[in-house]
From TrEMBL:
InterPro entries assigned: Cro/C1-type_HTH, IrrE_HExxH, Lambda_DNA-bd_dom_sf, Rad_response_metalloprotease
Annotated organism of origin: Gordonia hydrophobica
Domain HTH cro/C1-type: residue ranges: 8-62
PANTHER family reported for this sequence: ANTITOXIN HIGA1 (PTHR43236), BLL7220 PROTEIN (PTHR43236:SF1)
Protein name: XRE family transcriptional regulator
Transmembrane region(s): none
Upper taxonomic lineage: Bacteria, Bacillati, Actinomycetota, Actinomycetes, Mycobacteriales
Top-level lineage group: Bacteria
Entries under Pfam families matching the protein: HTH_3 (PF01381), Peptidase_M78 (PF06114)
Family to which the UniProt record says this protein belongs: Belongs to the short-chain fatty acyl-CoA assimilation regulator (ScfR) family.
Length: 344
């Protein structure tokens, strides 16, 4: 598959279209689209314009994208449930890849001066890696407040969208020197925070080293990052359900995560963990935990700041859309106008 063919396929899948649907929207024959995607033929200038119009991106975006690593599922980390439908997670995998390409154009125009970095500790013990990241970022002792702000301070572009399913939590990937995360905004805040920390674990631990159970590693990193051993162990000694509900508000993680952390630290036994989970199930808390709405929401701000940086240079809505590769300002989902940005 050629890079342009991979890009066309990525944009098509990101929109949930079949080749036949793309043909109907672009006026390019389905068999021709198939040849493009399989690298058997290259689109001419007229076809590129038709495809760009269908995708609502600029022709220059397609030309730029073919010069970059644009194939679907390149180095994407994903937190999803086993029951997540393949079509859905492949669509958001492609959507993240598309955002990566739009963002790469943005970072050619705007230099992102991050206060910190997302370090690489490939293959490191997750607990040790989480401790080192907290130290490097100089996080205050105790719970992590406004996790998304710390991520953005380290140059991580966080995009939130309603995925339309509870079975897919989030994805992450690198844009050259900067990571990008795509997070399901429909999740409760405690689950969003866990997903942010989980994806940070992937970025830290699995930049090159991807051996073993990488999802378990990312979860172990998230637990240690959000609930450091030396800070939470005493609070998790023989906890009651009422105490766990209070700790949820303090640490911004789910009751289930607190129970699992208590077991991993050895402050409860397997039998006690089972008993606590049975109590959660009996009260219906395994499906809908109490208190999630009282945890302060995680609100990304970096995209708004990047847009303001472009506006300060005299760029209007149309200019900004063109810079990041969209056909028009209303199609710009990476750096939408302020009112739309707050709604996402």
């Amino acid at each position: 598959m050629s890079r342009l063919g991979g890009l066309i396929e990525t944009l098509r899948i990101a929109r949930g279209w079949t080749q036949t649907e793309l043909a109907a929207r672009s006026g390019v024959r389905q068999v021709t689209i198939s040849r493009y995607e399989h690298g058997l033929r290259e689109p001419d200038d007229a076809a590129l314009r038709s495809l760009a119009a269908a995708f609502k991106v600029s022709k220059e975006f397609l030309e730029h994208g073919q010069r970059r690593k644009a194939a679907l599922a390149v180095d994407v980390h994903m937190r999803r449930r086993a029951t997540a439908k393949a079509g859905v997670w492949r669509q958001y995998e492609a959507r993240l890849n598309e955002y990566r390409l739009h963002a790469s154009r943005l970072f050619e125009e705007v230099s992102l001066q991050a206060e910190q970095i997302v370090p690489h500790f490939d293959g490191e013990d997750p607990e040790a890696a989480a401790r080192m990241v907290r130290m490097q970022w100089r996080l205050p002792v105790g719970p992590v407040r406004s996790l998304v702000a710390w991520l953005e301070a380290a140059g991580c572009l966080v995009i939130t969208e309603d995925f339309g399913t509870s079975r897919l939590d989030g994805l992450s990937q690198w844009i050259d020197d900067h990571p990008v995360m795509l997070i399901n905004s429909a999740m409760p805040t405690d689950r969003q925070r866990w997903t942010l920390a989980h994806e940070l674990g992937h970025l830290v631990l699995h930049n090159e080293y991807v051996d073993g159970d990488v999802e378990a590693d990312a979860d172990a990193f998230a637990a240690a990052f959000l609930m450091p051993t030396e800070m939470i162990r005493t609070s998790l000694t023989k906890p009651t359900l009422g105490r766990l509900i209070d700790l949820k508000q303090e640490w911004g993680v789910s009751i289930a995560a607190l129970i699992q952390r208590a077991r991993s630290l050895g402050t409860i036994t397997d039998a006690e963990r089972t008993r606590l989970f049975k109590m959660l199930s009996a009260k219906g808390y395994r499906i809908d935990e109490p208190g999630s709405d009282r945890i302060p929401p995680e609100v990304p701000r970096l995209r708004e700041h990047l847009r303001l940086a472009l506006e300060s240079r005299g760029h209007g809505d149309k200019d900004i859309a063109a810079i990041v590769g969209y056909a028009s300002a209303r199609d710009n989902t990476l750096l939408p106008a302020p009112k739309r940005l707050r709604a996402v």
